[in-house]
From TrEMBL:
The keyword Ribonucleoprotein applies. This is 60S acidic ribosomal protein P2. Belongs to the eukaryotic ribosomal protein P1/P2 family. Keywords: Ribonucleoprotein, Ribosomal protein. GO terms for biological process: cytoplasmic translation; translational elongation. It comes from Paramecium sonneborni.
Length: 107
């Protein structure tokens, strides 16, 4: 049963990617070509579950809402050349400690 459900899910993804309508017949054709016998009941349940929904947008980052912007930002960041490391700063001389009056606590 798990292999059948997986085969139906992959068939739906292939159909969505090729802009082919998600129908029971199309799902059964693809699964049959893949060598998986799927019951028509499982295929019809899957088709009904995704009826009227865009599978590609459901799989997009952020539930399909303008996912192109974060992707563009991350690719721009990856395309920038690495900046040269800054010259190591010389450590500053430690400031001389001052005698602090502790109120006679350690006299």
């Amino acid at each position: 049963m798990a292999n059948q459900a997986t085969a139906v899910a992959y068939a739906a993804l292939l159909l969505a990617g090729s802009k082919t309508p998600l129908t029971v017949e199309n799902v059964e054709k693809l699964t049959k070509k893949a060598g998986v016998n799927v019951s028509s009941q499982l295929a019809s349940q899957f088709v009904r579950a995704f009826e009227g929904k865009d599978i590609v947008s459901l799989l997009s980052v952020g539930g399909g809402s303008s996912s192109a912007a974060p992707t563009a930002q991350s690719t721009q960041a990856a395309a920038k050349p690495a900046e040269a490391p800054k010259a190591a700063e010389k450590p500053k001389d430690p400031e001389p400690e001052e005698d602090v009056d502790m109120g006679g606590l350690f006299d």
